[in-house]
Request: fold
Amino acid sequence: MSLQRLFARVRWFLTLFLPAAVLAAPLGVFEDHADIGKPKLAGHATWNAASQEYVLTAGGVNMWEKRDEFHMAWRKLRGDFILQAQVEFLGKGVDPHRKAGLIVRSSLEDDSPYVDGALHAGDGLTSLQFRRSGGAITEQLEAAVKGADVVQLERRGNTYIFSAARFGERFVTREIADLGLGETVYAGLFMCSHNGDVTQTAVFRNVRVIRPAKPDFVPYRDYIGSVLELLDVNTGVRRVIRQSREPFEAPNWTPDGTALIYNTSGRGEGRGRLYRFDLASRQAALIDTGFAIRNNNDHVLSFDGTMQGISDQSTDQNQSTIFTLPAGGGAPKRITPQTPSYLHSWSPDGKYLLYTGGRNGEFDIYRIASDGSGTEQRLTSAAGVDDGPEYTPDGAHIYFNSERSGRMQIWRMRADGSEQRQVTEDQHNNWFPHISPDGKWIAMISYVDEVKASEHPYYKRVYLRLMPTAGGTPKVIAYVYGGQGTINVPSWSPDGKMLAFVSNTDELTP
Reply:
């Protein structure tokens, strides 16, 4: 008998006696994968580090009533967490009820209490399914969306919130409270063929296991880790290129396309430094900013990439002041006479800087000559916060966000401040419009969680959205846990195909 056949026999023998045969190596963010409930045909899971995709193939008669048969990629987690994924079923399938999604279980026993967010391939049913106790009948809450392919399952204590959407649309949610699955659970991805005689396959992209900030965290004192990501704006595919327990924020994409520039945040000696992250080597190098070592997340490169503008708090009694210096580093030159001032854009010809200035209790948009000559010119005067100004590539218009209509919305004006008009009008608070290199698209961050219109806090559920500058309905291109520091600065790739941004998660410990 060959070793391959011997291994297959051993595996089959073990599945007769073990509730979940764990016979595979760890994959990606998960500890392992296993068949649950002894399906007739064995399933498996793979992780492609290059594409950052998981593929699950599974048999199994069902996940319903008193017991389940399916395949699961899992890791043990405690406390609160958020699972995310984009799911694609492969092939036409045999049974219309084949399903895949996100799952949390008390154990790997086939009758374990559990909750899942399930996508059904045949009729597009999207539902929150759960079993309250071992061997109990599965219950279901249908979501008000058909054919969803983006899913999120969040645990808050004993409450589980399932969110689902067709990519590009906003989440709809269902939740179940008082579902006690235990402090330590098995959480991850699942696939079920719903037909014991065949296996079916699904691909999982943009998989994230997120540990959110603790409910009692104190903003600007307590921080969690950061994840640097690249986003394909057409497909929504995200790629993690750096992750750190130490927080960093706001990536600028250099005009030559070779690097990103971000600032560190948090507390301690390393806070507020700028780094150049080389995309080829995946290495970060400190940028010399002289005495200005308390940079915030309002740093911007000139359109030609030769100069860097920074907002720094090393002087003026820790108030934000704007300086310029060579992009590669050097001695900072002070530009703004008054504080606080928060930089957001260079004009395409390099002659002006656009920024938000706090003056007499109001926050408005200002511009000033980039060489520091002359006086600042106030461009907005509405009550409340006007922020995030950015020039269009032709220099003719400025986009910004304003709370003057109630919620924070995107506005546009001419470069001299005239003809101010509202661009978005929806239930979200929308911040930081970033214009694509060809001037055709606006990327923005939109808060899903309810926040004050005048604030853009850390560690919230947000969308990254895209809309034409000519007008239209914004489309969701990323479902993110982030907020402050995610996309504060211009971060389009030079070819207009990608965005760089920062998401957040605390350490994942069992």
About this structure: Residues 3-17 form the longest helix (15 residues). Confidence is low (pLDDT under 50) at residues 1-25.
